[in-house]
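quick one before i forget lol
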Amino acid sequence: MKISRTRDFELVAKLNKYVHDLHANLYPEYFKEYNFEEIKIFFQKIIDQEEFAFLLLEDDEQPLGYAWIEFRNYPANTFKKAYKSVYVHQISITENQRKKGYGSKLMDEITDIAKVNGINKIELDYWFNNEIAKNFYKKNDFVKYREFVYKDI
């Protein structure tokens, strides 16, 4: 198994299908159907921005998933202290390779990246009905500290 940084926006867009389809199935009122061309263009625009990193997970030279992370710097303000974090936008593992520890390996790599950069916080959010994500992050010792709620009117 190998994890490396990638700038291959086409491969990231292809691997995005697995996490995108999960979201679209759980929340069709929010998510469009997966569209490779549109998603490829999106990733092409952001993949070289210095605050983002894309981690490609491969096994036997087969791409099995990726993580999209962002280095965030929160300045102090009247209410909050300054801090830095690594924000996890997405982790996507091919459907037939889930529950084999690949997501945990990506989280270990993200933790190592944070430590090397002197960052002591990893943040993320996930959609409430995404039980796969909820269980995965709980297993990886993430703590819920805020909830985002809404009301349709």
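fyi The chain is about 35% helix and 25% strand.
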